Amino acid sequence: MLIETLLQMKNLYLTSGAIARTSCSINYIYLNIIRNEVITLQELNSLTADTILSDEVLCEVMEEQDEIFKARLLISLEERAQELGVKTKFTRLIAAYKKEKAKFDKQQSPVNMERMTEFDGTYDDMRCGNWIADDNGVRTFGPFGGEILACYHPILPVQRLVNAQSGKEKIKLVFKKGHKWKEIITEKGTIASANKIVGLADYGVSVTSENARNLVRYLSDIENFNIDRIGIQVSTSKLGWIQGEFMPYGKSVIFDSETKFKETFEAVHEEGSSEIWFDLARKIRKEGKLQPNIYMIGSLASALIEPLNALPFVLNLWGDSGKGKTVALMLAASVWANPGGYEYIVDPKGTVTALELRMDLLNNLPMLIDDMSQLKDKYSGDFSELVYMLCSGKGKDRANANLGLNKSTTWKNVILTNGEHSLVTETMQGGAVNRIIDVGMDDGYLFENGNQVVETIKQNYGFAGRMFIDAIEQIGIDRIKEIQLDFLQQINARAEELGVEKEEKQALPMSILLTTDKIATDYIFEDGLYLDLNTCVDLLKNKGEVSENERAYEFILSEAAINMNKFKPDTFTGDYKGEIWGAVEGGYLIIINNAFNKICERGNFSSKSFLAWANKQGLIEGQNGKNTKPKRIKGSLSRCVFLKLPSEAEAENTQIEIPEDFMKVPDSMEEDLPFN
Fold first, then answer.
1. Domain residues for 631?
2. What is the total count of domains within the chain?
3. pTM
4. Which of 95-104, 473-482, 489-498 has the largest mean confidence?
């Protein structure tokens, strides 16, 4: 413990930032430690010649463990003793106390290894050295006969947990209050620090700044005296596949983050009747609506992403509100967990960091986000980046307080989302688009009675997930890979039959969904109601739809069509003060360079990348090796982008919607254009 300033006895100051800890409990000295504030020791002039020489004061001072603080406190007390005219007596007494303490310390060595804890309950007794540990609490005796209290109730470390991901250790503590034993898992660093261990008070442990250091000493002694009795357990802070087992269903690995993710972890369990849940699920499957069925399959498919070494992907359900999207999401959640509230389903109002931590925890279980539009609105400028991050399986690197990097958050799962609109928009970058499988809703409702579905699954859930894991282990991952490869070939064959080329990065997740569907249908639902391959293939984007530059082309044309008044310079009057973007002439959309760059920026597209692509495609007219050329518009000579407008046939072939205002002029007219 460091003390910045220790002034005269009547006016002593401590700076909390310089104080690591203190537990001095002298009746006549009061320490009020408040973080980030300057605090004072109350005047000590109440100490009289008698009280400063009392056993109570001297024992408290000599039992102080922080030697630096003890030395400074002794100096201050000596000054006060001198003021009272008893310095000689005070000095002699201190010397005597030191001598007695040294004698006591010698007598205490070696530690009494025969003494054992005497707690009632199911936990084995452990060596406790010189501590007295029974149902009355934990204490020992000081060098001057005073009792030193570590805890008011029984407490014991019973297990060391070694995290499978980080290699860091945690400790499982048990303690008894009110005749009931409780368990808590905490960081090793917590029980090694008097400052940190007081945090256990939040979980019911009777620890204060007064007994914190003694509790640290006791727990350290118990652990060190009982290396052979305290077992080591592999643990994890993640759900999903861990060392060949699937958490939370595994037996040899335990979860060690209950305090941090208690609600989410506890949500993943079985509740109610499996028969009731499966009767409902089979009824919904029999009704034949794609959306709730593929949602349930997508939820189960999350468990295959890791063993198939695939990347995460988004399965998004969109359509009008009030048609059952949220109910479908809750149904998907009920495959694994309690679908009620936000214990498992993600609150979209949270931060990106919170999303990362939740993804890291879920790991191989599905992430479910209700109303993705809230995230789109919140991250409108970098939503594509957010989708990239979610589907990359890795969070952002962040520095810690020690100027190092925290361990990265990672996951491999399926992200189920919903909203009123498609996630795929003209402004989304192609790399993000191909990570999304959009499922639109038909007219009408997804469920005959949505309220009844909700009430049923809130009382009965968690069964299908465990059964699916059992099926995976029964079939074997090698056979599952063969099934997935076969579906991938079927998808490609169907696309070839249709005469289209589907985006491969979407075909792979769809093959996983179809593989999951086959396993679930054969081993879980046993109803023979497989997803229709042709319908599933139709959900996939064509390569042209995913091309970022083709999407940029479409976006630029759409922006120009919406703002057509800005492309008619001949109509501008002399006092016109509005924006001028360019002109439309001879089959070209002519855009002033500055306006063109702003349009691309608004759509999150790279103007440089687009122009390079458009040049190769023959979609722009340049000059002197540049992708732009000069054009006089409204009397001013400006460098412009000459963007070729597609004919109706070309638009249909490239899947680009041509605005009605844009019609390519016949070739016979182009020879008269001034820039040809």
1. 548-670
2. 4
3. 0.67
4. 473-482
